[in-house]
Amino acid sequence: KWPFCHAEAHSMVSLGFDNCQNTTLYVVRVYRNNEIALAKPCIECARLAKFVGIKQIYYTTDTGYQCIYH
Question: pLDDT for 42-58, tens place per residue?
């Protein structure tokens, strides 16, 4: 259904932008066969995270995880 948003943006809206200052965001994608998959936030979600004050974003990759620092 419309409207929709990515899980990252939804988590920030749900928590409240003022409550995101100096926090860390974790983004995980798991396939139905329990394999970890790439869950890198899109550029818009990364920009929103920076705007609301999130300092680090950890996301899963096919081989583990990566971190984005703001």
Answer: 999 999 999 999 999 99
